[in-house]
């Protein structure tokens, strides 16, 4: 009897045909966002963070204060900068004590104008954090650019940039910031000074803090410049700018991030110092430094809370950011692993 079945209908024909296409659940498919998150969670940096009580507490405090500042319009009980909501009869009310005239109670008391101290701290932190983050970003931009150029080009250009940095290091950063702030306000017309005071403050702190970024990036660039991948990029005709941005910059960012974290705390303190001296944030946009300056005038008259709570907030914020920067420096140091 002749078998008329086609060849592909024979038993096992489907099994000996072409192999099946690779499945989506293979190792390559699992290496998606979930796989990347898993690798990040299992990295040395994440492990060090999870097992460092100092880093956990510092990160929690920074996150709490930043959220309080960002969400101030919704978290603050009052708007301290809206004259329509202020009541002068509530002035100098102690914390958690009812006012003798209105009967209102405030968590951290009120200042001389009847403003809730807790609300002024939340709004003041917004200014301090904005100035600090913006100033550090400006200092990073200038310092990284000059450090890359000095380290890669070398020669006369390197010497000029580093001598300028050395000259600036001979002056305290706060004096440099005050000088830049004074020159900028002298150029700006009087009617526009309050509107641009915050931006002038950012410019002053940023221009006084770029040197340390430039020096670190220059040193790291000089090390990376002699490696084989840079020489290979030069052989294939890549331009100097492309080599610095695409090849060298990603390899020198680790120490820059550490310096940026520590510099943020110093920038916040510098802003508070300038505002305390009366050359920082305007009274219409008070920062933590401005609140401390206002409270200092009432310290010896018994209204201690007007000074104590803004100063304590500044202390906790700067200390938490500084401790977080110290942990990041140790975690990224290969000698300590």
Automatic annotation (TrEMBL):
Subcellular location: Cell membrane
Domain spans labelled ABC transmembrane type-1: 125-325
Keywords: Cell membrane, Membrane, Transmembrane, Transmembrane helix, Transport
N-terminal signal peptide: none
Start and end residues of each stretch annotated as Disordered: 1-33
Listed PANTHER family: ABC TRANSPORTER PERMEASE PROTEIN, OLIGOPEPTIDE TRANSPORT SYSTEM PERMEASE PROTEIN APPC
Protein name: Binding-protein-dependent transport systems inner membrane component
Source organism of this protein record: Oceaniovalibus guishaninsula JLT2003
